[in-house]
Specification:
Elements lengths: L2 E4 L6 H12 L2 E4 H11 L2 H12 L5 H11 L9 E4 L5 H13 L6 E6 L2 H15 L8 H15 L2 H7 L3 E5 L4 H15 L1
Parallel strand pairs: 1-3, 1-4, 2-3, 4-5
The structure holds adenosine monophosphate.
Length: about 190
C-alpha cells in the first residue's frame, strides 16, 4: 500500500505518518526531513536548498524527484510507503506516477488532511514557541509564504488525484486521535 499524506504545513502530516508507519509497517518518506538532513550534513544538495527552504519556497522539482526516486528503491519500501510533503507540484505528481508505473506500482490513496489557514497559523506559532525556533523555516513570515505556496502550487493537485479516484479527505481540525482513527478506517477498507 502506497499512500500520500497531503495537506498544508502544520496540518499534522508528520504526526499521522509516524503513527501509520507503526501500525501498517510502511516506510515514512518525508522530503522535508531528507532536505533538512542534507542541509545539516552540508552536502552539495544541502547547500543548494538551504536558502530556498529558509524562505519557505519550493526547491526545484528535479531535486526532490531524484531524492524520492532513489528512496523508493530501498528494501524498506517494498511493503509500501507513506509520502509526506511530496508531491507538492503537478510536475512532481506526474514524475511520481511515471516512476511507480516503471515498477508496476501505484498510489493507492491520497489522504488530504484539511485544516483552515487561521488554525494553521495558531499551530505553527505554538510549534515555534515550544521548539524555541528549532526549524529555521518556522517563523511567521515564512509560514505566510509556505501557505501561499501551498494554495498556489500544491492544492491544485487535489483535482488531479480526485480524477484518479484515489482522493480521501479528513477533517484535520479534530483531535489528533480522531484524525488517526479516520485515516485508519480509510486504509483498512483499502487493504
Ligand atoms: P516540510 O518539512 O515538508 O514542510 O518541508 C520543508 C521545506 O522543504 C519546504 O518549505 C520546501 O522548501 C522544501 N520541500 C520539502 N518537500 C518539498 C517538495 N516536495 N518540493 C519542493 N520543496 C520541498
Amino acid at each position: 500500500m502506497n499512500i500520500v499524506l497531503f495537506g498544508p504545513p502544520g496540518a499534522g502530516k508528520g504526526t499521522q505518518a509516524a503513527r501509520l508507519k507503526e501500525k501498517y509497517g510502511l516506510a515514512h518518506l518525508a522530503t522535508g526531513d531528507m532536505l533538512r538532513a542534507a542541509v545539516a550534513a552540508g552536502t552539495e544538495l544541502g547547500r543548494k536548498v538551504e536558502k530556498i527552504m529558509e524562505r519557505g519556497e519550493l526547491v526545484p522539482d528535479e531535486m526532490v524527484v531524484a531524492l524520492i526516486a532513489e528512496r523508493i528503491e530501498q528494501p524498506d519500501c517494498e511493503k509500501g510507503f507513506i509520502l509526506d510533503g511530496f508531491p507538492r507540484t503537478l510536475a512532481q505528481a506526474e514524475a511520481l506516477d511515471r516512476m511507480l508505473a516503471e515498477h508496476g506500482k501505484r498510489i493507492d490513496a491520497v489522504i488530504e488532511i484539511r485544516v483552515d489557514d487561521d488554525r494553521l497559523i495558531d499551530r505553527i506559532r505554538r510549534r515555534i514557541a515550544e521548539s524555541g525556533g528549532a526549524r529555521s523555516d518556522d517563523n511567521e513570515e515564512t509560514l505566510k509564504t509556505r501557505l501561499e505556496v501551498y494554495h498556489r502550487q500544491t492544492a491544485p493537485l487535489l483535482p488531479y488525484y480526485r480524477q484518479r479516484g484515489v482522493l480521501y479527505t479528513v477533517d484535520g481540525m479534530q483531535p489528533i486521535d480522531e484524525v488517526t482513527r479516520q485515516i485508519e478506517a480509510i486504509l483498512d477498507r483499502l487493504r
